[in-house]
Amino acid sequence: MSIVVEHEKRRKEILEKALDVFMDEGFEDATFQKIADRCAITRTTLYIYFRNKKEIFNYSIKLLLMKLEDSIQQIRADDSLGAVDKITRILSGILQQLEENRRLLSVILDYLLYLSKSDSNPETRVRRRTLRLRHILASMVIEGVKSGELLPVNIKFADDFLYSFIEAAIFRLAVLKHETVEELKEAAALAVARLAAG
Questions:
Q1: pTM assigned to the model
Q2: Please, which pLDDT band fits residue 2 given cuts at 50, 70 and 90?
Q3: What residues contact 96, with CB distance under 8 A and at least 6 apart?
Q4: CA 112, CA 176: separation in Å to the nearest integer?
């Protein structure tokens, strides 16, 4: 049991140091050797934990998305909240997670630029990674409309509108280097309140 715990602890340490390499070098120039050097381990040891730099990168994204989804599902399960409160809290929580993980956002943008240079379509990868999140937002709007808590709206437009706050946060944090997204949290709350019926 302790071996598994130590293995996971070491993986997280490697991920943290690998992010520093990705931040310093960019995705394209970060190498497995540079990551191993930053971790003060050999490449052979690094292979025990990860197969390549892409796996390290993907695991970082997976951890962020799992953490987001856990917090979203807790809010969704809270029957004491109405649709407006649930959607507002979900958006606020997502924006907070993005703010806390702004370093990873910069690496993701670097990776997407790398993909676009290699004639790969980054939009496909982004859609695949965000599909569950978009589905959750859409289902929350549908539930709110069905319960009468939200105005009848075009679900796709409402989903795109709500998701645009997430995209704006990513742009502000990763490109414009803002320290906080508090204004976006307030704007999102106001936007969701405007969807409320009555």
A1: 0.82
A2: low
A3: 181, 185
A4: 17
